[in-house]
Every structure is written in C-alpha cells, then in structure tokens.
C-alpha cells in the first residue's frame, strides 16, 4: 500500500492555543486528501476534503474557521486546530487518494491530540 | 437506515477458521467498496477493494460484492490471532469521492 505520513503523532496543548498537523503523501501526488476525526470506540468521521490549489470542502457541522486546512502542494496538506478546547481532543487522521482512475484512499498513522 | 451498516460484533473465531464479515449499503448507485482493518489505537489500513460484482481474492482475504442485493462481504481464511482487529467497510457513492464508513465489526481470533 501507499505511504502517507503524519506529524506529529501525538500532541498535548493547552486550551486556547493552536495546533498544526501535517499530512504528506510519500508515494504519489495527491490532488485530493481528506481529514477525519475519530472518537474512542467510534467510526471515522469525515471533517473535510482538501483539494490542492483550492479551498477545502467541509462537512456539515464542521467549523471551517476552527479547522483550517491548507493543501499547498500535491504532497502536503495541513490541518490547524485553532483555539483548541478539551472537546477537540481526538484522533485526527488524514488520507490521500490516488489520482486519476483509482479511488483507493490510504490513511496516515494519525495524530492524537489532547487539549488540557 | 444507516448508509453503511455492519454488525458491531465481536465476532469470535477460532484460530484457523474462516471469519465472515458482512456489510450492507443503502445507495444503489454506489460504485466502489473497500475493507479496512484497524487495530486499537491505530489508523485504518486498506486490505481490499472491489468494484465489480463477484469475488476478488488476495492472499487469505476474499471480498464478495453483490450490487443487486447491496451487500459486500469479507472472508478471512485461516484466521490468525493477528487478525484480531476492527474491520471497517467503506463505500464511495455514485458521482462522489468521499468514503462513507460503516461502524465496523470487531473480530477476535482465539488461539
């Protein structure tokens, strides 16, 4: 399978601060990347679709001003959680979709965010 | 009705046996179907994808798709304790590129 990396793998921050998470597609150029959030014992919830060179598309109920997404290149998308609060503590996972005819998505290892 | 449904389990399987997982979906126009494995505390790992009706085999895994009945299944042959994980079924609906996940089936393979 393809390799997608995320950094950092774990982060603890204080309430009110901002945290940036990086997602890199190492095997292929990904015009589309996705950001998910997963709470304990729950399935993945899609937050937004990140499109290279254009604005991200957010799912209903996800605040775009709180979760800033930038897809500056074909191999890098970033998610910034602004003014983090304890309820933002979660497992954040990105995925990269193979371009052209393929529909497979490959997930990064995830970032565990804890807001104190 | 949920868009993608799976039995939450746990599905308990003796080592060496076949684990059979099922998934049903509501959007008849869905085009692409995926099975991911997720170990506790880790991110999902793609193990199978299938686009056409019928069976697709890869090692000990076989995915089966029946679009008329709107279900996709995963068989794990010769189950090993290392197969113990949550298996997520995911679907891409017609004219879309987003994965819609089921709730996952937890599989326990007992030695």
Describe this protein's structure.
By secondary structure, chain A is mainly β. Chain A contains no helices and eleven strands. In chain A, strand 7 and strand 8 form a beta hairpin. Chain A is globular. In chain B, strands 2, 4, 5, 9, 10 and 11 form a six-stranded mixed sheet that branches. Chain B has a five-stranded antiparallel sheet with strand order 1-3-8-7-6, with no helix packed on it. The radius of gyration of chain B is 13 Å and the shape is globular. Chains A and B meet through strand 9 and strand 10 of A and strand 4 and strand 5 of B.
Describe the secondary-structure layout:
The complex is a heterodimer of chains A (116) and B (111).
Chain A: E1 4-7, E2 10-13, E3 19-25, E4 32-38, E5 45-51, E6 57-58, E7 67-73, E8 76-81, E9 90-97, E10 105-107, E11 111-115
Parallel strand pairs in A: 2-11
Antiparallel strand pairs in A: 1-3, 3-8, 4-5, 4-9, 5-6, 7-8, 9-10, 9-11
Chain B: E1 4-6, E2 11-14, E3 19-25, E4 32-38, E5 45-50, E6 54-58, E7 61-66, E8 71-76, E9 85-92, E10 99-101, E11 105-110
């Amino acid at each position: 399978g393809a390799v997608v990396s995320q950094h950092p793998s774990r982060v603890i921050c204080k309430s009110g601060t901002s945290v940036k998470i990086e997602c890199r597609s190492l095997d292929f150029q990904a015009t589309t990347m996705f950001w998910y959030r997963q709470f304990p014992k729950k399935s993945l919830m899609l937050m937004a679709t990140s499109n290279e060179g254009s604005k991200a598309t957010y799912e209903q109920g996800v605040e775009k001003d709180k979760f800033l997404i930038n897809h500056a290149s074909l191999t890098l998308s970033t998610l910034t959680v602004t003014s983090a609060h304890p309820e933002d503590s979660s497992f954040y996972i990105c995925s990269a979709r193979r371009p052209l005819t393929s529909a497979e998505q490959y997930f990064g290892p995830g970032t565990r965010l804890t807001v104190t | 009705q949920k868009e993608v449904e799976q039995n939450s389990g746990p599905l308990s399987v003796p080592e060496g046996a076949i684990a059979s997982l099922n998934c049903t979906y509501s959007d008849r126009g869905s085009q692409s179907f995926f099975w991911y494995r997720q170990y506790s505390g880790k991110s999902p790992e793609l193990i199978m994808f299938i686009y056409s009706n019928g069976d697709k085999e890869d090692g000990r895994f076989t995915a089966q798709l029946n679009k008329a009945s709107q279900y996709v299944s995963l068989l794990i042959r010769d189950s090993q304790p290392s197969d113990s994980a949550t298996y997520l079924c995911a679907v891409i609906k017609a004219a879309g590129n987003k994965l819609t996940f089921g709730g996952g089936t937890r599989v326990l393979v007992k030695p």
